[in-house]
Amino acid sequence: MDRAKESIRKILLWQRNQIPQQEREEKSRLIGERLIQTSEFSTALSVMIYVSFRSEVITKEIITHSLNINKNVIVPVVDKEHHRLILSRIKSLDELAPATYGIMEPKKLRIVQPDEVELFILPAVAFDERGARLGYGGGYFDRLLGNSKIAQHQKLIGLAFELQMRRELPCESHDILVDMVITEEKVRFFGSRLDESLSS
């Protein structure tokens, strides 16, 4: 199982890294537009948004928009010593600086508990058509969300480029399923909701 996941990671990370910067920016803009059109985003007062790193879907504009419309914006912070994520609220992008692994994190922490977050916006190496998520192998988000026992009213949305979608990923019982994945081409709903495509 781990070997299969690692093989998929290597292939998809290589493919994602090949997306030219201008194309990545344009696709990220489309993904961001789709996200803010969802009711899950518009109704959430508190949103955890990952701070994009390397070739991930860029989240800077999503964070800026969320701050501008007065949402409580929360970002993940790596606690490397305890191998976990903690959550911290930010009031401006200026509060971020390179930290663990080079990821931008708050210079000053305003700790937020996971059960205070209404919407989690997550990165991944890949998602599949069931909502399964393949992370980077550290298990940080799996522990954060698995330990938090996400309540029914809390939603998980994954952001990805279409090339990161797979029909089915290797999946274990502790792996997190998301409620929705948004790519530059469509919005996929999972669970009891039907797949839905939104026009650009």
Helix fraction?
25-40%
Briefly note the structural class of the backbone.
alpha/beta
Identify the overall geometry. Answer: globular
The total count of helices amounts to 5
What features would you describe in this structure?
The chain is an alpha/beta fold and 200 residues long. The protein has a single domain (2-75, 114-189), classed as Rossmann fold (3-Layer(aba) Sandwich). 28% of the residues lie in helices and 24% in strands. It has an eight-stranded mixed β-sheet, with helices on both faces. Strands 9-8-11 form a three-stranded mixed β-sheet, covered by helices on one side. Strand 8 and strand 9 form a beta hairpin. It is globular. The N and C termini lie far apart (37 Å).
Could you provide a short overview of the structure?
The protein has 200 residues and is α/β, with parallel strands linked by helices. It is built from five helices and 13 strands. It has one domain: NagB/RpiA/CoA transferase-like (Rossmann fold).
Topology:
Blueprint: H1 2-17, H2 21-37, H3 39-43, E1 46-49, H4 60-68, E2 72-79, E3 84-90, E4 96-98, E5 104-106, E6 111-112, E7 119-122, E8 126-128, E9 133-134, H5 140-148, E10 155-159, E11 165-166, E12 180-182, E13 187-189
Parallel strand pairs: 1-2, 1-7, 7-10, 8-11, 10-12
Antiparallel strand pairs: 2-3, 3-6, 4-5, 8-9, 12-13
